[in-house]
């Protein structure tokens, strides 16, 4: 028998099945609340993190990206793709996995699926931002774009911001019907709408989340009244936007990391020096968020690596003492670190321990 791996060789792995089990075990709304708190905690220590725009490989049909960061003690990265054409082929638009590692040794600490986790952390980040930017007492949200992210957004705004009514619209009525069915019985009043204009009626928060990889105008200027909060999460790569430029010019704009958002977000439509406020500054009390009831606030969210770092760290803590992970023999760890070849030879077929 070849020698057994050492304890240092094993890395906890959270599969899709494990992630679903963990979220069901804890409750999806609790997970969304916990993720929002974890992300907000890391935004408060923003200065400690390495920050870089994601490394993107674009093609005619989509993008593949790496999103790395470190707080000096733990390193994390996410692999993620965005391929809008996938839906028509029966595939997910977004898939992802991620890893945490110990900065001191470089050894991995966690490997996890992040297709589900990205949906959860995106929704948690949206609602966490709205907690600081949305009008006080907001109860109704328009959800434009009823794809894979929509239910997560609705539940996050319910759990974190107190939303009790969602008005749904998608150019595909079947998507709206599916979203409404999935939200049934979850404590929300769900109103399917026949147009984006209809979805605006009474909405104090507007979330746009569409998938087409192109400049688009999901919201026109005349659709947006004073006092609303816009959560724009569909624009996330060069050449892909959702809002008319005039809406941006009327709004106070809040972003995660300007060097990335100016390339990928709604503000790619504006001059490179157009003023924006970094969300972490609002959370840390260094900048103003919502100042008055008539102000239009816009969270131009493209997703940033620190949010994934926070989500992975939360999962690493949450799986402790649960069955929702597998130990992978992932790291070669010979008794003598200089004798990797000797370990290889001793582990071959027909060798004895």
UniProtKB/TrEMBL annotation:
Q: Which Pfam families match?
A: OCD_Mu_crystall
What is the name of the protein in this document?
Answer: Ornithine cyclodeaminase
Q: What is the lineage of its organism?
A: Bacteria, Pseudomonadati, Pseudomonadota, Alphaproteobacteria, Rhodobacterales
């Amino acid at each position: 028998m070849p020698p057994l791996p050492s304890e240092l060789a094993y890395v906890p792995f959270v599969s899709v099945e494990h992630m679903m089990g963990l979220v069901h075990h804890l409750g999806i709304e609790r997970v969304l609340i916990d993720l929002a708190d974890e992300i907000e905690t890391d935004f408060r220590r923003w200065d400690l993190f390495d920050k870089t725009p994601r490394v993107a490989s674009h093609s005619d049909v989509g993008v593949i990206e790496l999103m790395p960061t470190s707080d000096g003690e733990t390193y994390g990265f996410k692999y993620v793709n965005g391929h809008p054409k996938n839906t028509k082929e029966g595939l997910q638009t977004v898939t992802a996995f991620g890893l945490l590692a110990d900065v001191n040794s470089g050894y991995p600490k966690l490997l996890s699926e992040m297709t589900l986790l990205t949906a959860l952390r995106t929704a948690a980040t949206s609602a966490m931002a709205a907690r600081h930017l949305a009008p006080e007492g907001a109860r109704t949200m328009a959800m434009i774009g009823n794809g894979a992210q929509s239910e997560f957004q609705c539940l996050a705004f319910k759990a974190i911001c107190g939303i009790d009514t969602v008005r749904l619209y998608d150019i595909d009525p079947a998507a709206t019907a599916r979203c409404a069915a999935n939200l049934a019985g979850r404590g929300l009043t769900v109103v399917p709408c026949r147009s984006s204009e209809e979805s605006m009626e009474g909405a104090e928060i507007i979330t746009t989340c569409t998938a087409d990889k192109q400049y688009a105008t999901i919201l026109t200027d005349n659709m947006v009244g004073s006092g609303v909060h816009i959560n724009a999460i569909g624009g996330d790569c060069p050449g892909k936007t959702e809002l008319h430029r005039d809406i941006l010019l009327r709004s106070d704009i809040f972003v995660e990391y300007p060097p990335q958002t100016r390339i990928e977000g709604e503000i790619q439509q504006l001059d490179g020096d157009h003023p924006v406020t970094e969300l972490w500054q609002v959370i840390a009390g260094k900048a103003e968020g919502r100042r008055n009831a008539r102000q239009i606030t816009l969270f131009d969210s493209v997703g940033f690596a620190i949010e994934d770092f926070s989500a992975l760290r939360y999962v690493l803590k949450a799986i402790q003492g649960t069955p929702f992970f597998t130990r992978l023999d992932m790291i070669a760890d010979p008794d003598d670190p200089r004798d990797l070849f000797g370990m290889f030879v001793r582990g071959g077929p027909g060798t004895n321990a």
